[in-house]
Amino acid sequence: MKLDKPVPGGPCWTELGTTDVDGARRFYGELFGWRSGTDPRQEAGGYTMAHLGDTAVAALTPLYQPEQPVAWNVSFGVSDAEVTCRLLTELGGRVLVGPMDVLEAGRFVVAADPVGAVFRLWQARAFPGAGLFNVPGALGWVELLTRDARRAETFYTTVFGWTVRTSENYTQWGVGGADFGGMVPMDDKFPPEVPPHWLPYFAVADVDGATAVATGAGGTALMEPTSVPDGPRIAVLRDPQGAMFGVYRAGDEG
C-alpha cells in the first residue's frame, strides 16, 4: 500500500466481528503482537481496540446482529457519509446500517456494493482511523473478491474516485495513483456459497513464520505461503472462529 495514513476514499480501518473476542485477542496478540483493550462504557458494546505499541491499528468486536457473519470488515474514509450513501444507492449499492454517530469518534455506515460485497464508510471526527500502515502487524492491502469485476469497477471508481491500474492478471485500486488494494474475479474455483467480499492483508516480517504461528494457534492456512510473480510473498489464513484474512511480507507492497 502506498498510502501511509487515512485519506478520503482510501482504506482507513479494519475490524473483526467475532463470536469470541477474548479468543481473538489471544490469537491476534500472538500472531501480530497486538495489545488490546475493551472500551468499558456500556454504550461501546464491547468494542475492543488493538494497538501496536500505543498506536491503534484495528478493532475486535462482538457480533451485533444475528445475521452478521464472523468476518474482517474494511472501512473507507469519506468526507460526508450521507452524500456517499445517496451516490452508492443510485449506483445499485445498498445501505445496510446507518449513517450513525459512533460516540464522539465519527459517523459510520455499513453498505454493500451491487454484486454483494459488504464494506464500511467512516466519516472521521475525533478518530481518523489506523495510525500505522504497511509495518508488521498493521493493515497494508485490501482486496475485493467479486463475481462481476466490470460492474464492481464502475461502482467503486464512481463512488470513491479511485484510480485503476490493470495488468494481465490483476486490477489495482488507488487514490490519486497511490495504490492501496486490488480486485480478484471469483471463478469456478470459488464455491458458490462463498459471497463476494473484501479481504484485508496485514504486513508481517515473515509470511512462512506467521503462517506457522497462526496454524499453531488454531488457525488454518487457506492458501499456503506463495510468492506472487512480480509481487509479494503472501498467504491467506483463517482464524479459529472462521474469519479470513491475508498476510504479506512487509516491504513487498506495490
Automatic annotation (TrEMBL):
Q: Which residues form the VOC domain?
A: 10-124, 138-250
* A Pfam family the protein falls into: Glyoxalase
Q: Which PROSITE patterns match?
A: VOC (PS51819)
Q: Which CDD domains match?
A: SgaA_N_like (cd07247)
What InterPro entries has UniProt attached to this entry?
A: Anthracycline_SecMetBiosynth (IPR052164), Glyas_Bleomycin-R_OHBP_Dase (IPR029068), Glyas_Fos-R_dOase_dom (IPR004360), Glyoxalase_6 (IPR041581), VOC_core (IPR037523)
Q: Which domain of life is it from?
A: Bacteria
Name this polypeptide is given: VOC family protein
Q: Which organism is it from?
A: Streptomyces galbus
Task: Give the taxonomic lineage as stored in the record.
Answer: Bacteria, Bacillati, Actinomycetota, Actinomycetes, Kitasatosporales
